[in-house]
């Protein structure tokens, strides 16, 4: 499972339209638009007995955060453009939005930890994975292309708890299922 900020359909459609003519190029496995999201917290395994408590704690964390304006904009590569394994699109955030998003990620991790769920310890970095590479490659030109992208603005008003069913989606990719939607304070 994971806790995510999921852009609204119009923001996803805009990014998808930008990427579509480019998908025939490059050594990439492109992410499906229905899987575009910002992972706030990755939870390796959530026992059924912990689910209700986890949702309650996430709801409390959501009530402590206010909605904020953002847009999908720019991009990059992990670990870097010279030896990329992942290409991503970023978020354009003002100071308040960046603070709220970082605190959302911290709150999601704390909610899981307090429920007794092991949390992936990687440092939070807001991004939407748009493509993966089978082996490291140089992708500077692709990063420059992503840097030209700026989608429509939208208000982040909720987060989602999502179950990932490995190998069940198209092309043996994971299938995502939203388990709970957690509103943010207005």
Could you characterize what this model shows?
- With 186 residues, this protein is an alpha+beta fold.
- It has one domain: Alpha-Beta Complex (Cyclic Phosphodiesterase, Chain: A), CATH 3.90.1140.
- Helix content is 30%, strand content 33%.
- The protein contains 4 helices and 9 strands, in the order E-H-E-E-H-E-E-H-E-H-E-E-E.
- The protein has helices at residues 9-19, 48-63, 95-115, 140-147; strands at 2-5, 28-30, 38-42, 68-78, 84-92, 128-137, 154-156, 158-165, 175-183.
- The strands form 2 sheets. It has a 5-stranded antiparallel sheet with strand order 2-6-5-4-7. Strands 3-1-8-9 form a 4-stranded antiparallel sheet.
- The longest helix is centred in the middle third of the chain and has 21 residues, at 95-115.
- The chain starts with a strand and ends with a strand.
What is the secondary structure topology, with strand pairs?
Elements (H helix, E strand, L loop, with lengths): L1 E4 L3 H11 L8 E3 L7 E5 L5 H16 L4 E11 L5 E9 L2 H21 L12 E10 L2 H8 L6 E3 L1 E8 L9 E9 L3
Antiparallel strand pairs: 1-3, 1-8, 2-6, 4-5, 4-7, 5-6, 8-9
Outline:
The protein contains 4 helices and 9 strands. The chain is α+β, with helices and mostly antiparallel strands.
Characteristic terms for this protein:
4 helices, 186 residues, four-stranded antiparallel beta sheet, Cyclic Phosphodiesterase, Chain: A, five-stranded antiparallel beta sheet, alpha+beta
- Output the helix-strand order: EHEEHEEHEHEEE
Superfamily at the CATH H level? Answer: Cyclic phosphodiesterase
Instruction: Name the average pLDDT.
Output: 94
CATH class descriptor = Alpha Beta
Number of helices: 4
Total E-strand runs = 9
Strand order of the largest sheet: 2-6-5-4-7
Taking the alpha carbons of the first and last residues, their distance comes to 26 Å
Helix percent reads 25-40%
Determine the structural class based on helices, strands and strand pairing. alpha+beta
Indicate the radius of gyration in whole angstroms: 16 Å
Main beta sheet: strand number and arrangement? Answer: 5 strands, antiparallel
